[in-house]
Design brief:
133 residues; mainly alpha; two-stranded antiparallel ribbon; 2 strands; serine-type endopeptidase activity; Rhomboid-like_sf; Peptidase, S54 family; transmembrane; transmembrane helix
Length: 133
Amino acid sequence: MFFFMAALISSLLDSFIRGVILRDSTPVVGASGAISGIAAVAALLSPFSLRFNHKNIPFPVFLVAWIMVYSDITNVFTEDGIARWAHLGGFISVIFAAYFLKPTERKQLHSGFILNLIFIILALILAFFYSSR
């Protein structure tokens, strides 16, 4: 469900922003927006491990997802042929997909969001103190 929801929302967001607002008529093909949505879900539901063959493997999934978001935000207006608005739409799609989850899954998604938010705030504080040296 997350994959199809992310694919739909990311393509709509990219089409709207690039087509209507930026007046860009370049067609977009691919599933990278949906993959970004899956990365966002993974970062929220299981931020510290990957599940593979019914085993949890320690891995900083949240860090990979935030690097992807940072890369897309900082390069959103470059003309490199990458549909960065679709990627950002994939990340945003998790908000809409949460409405279709069971209450326990929604609570887990919310907890993952809070955890990721704390990480980002701590990283910004650390960057602030490091840059003021």
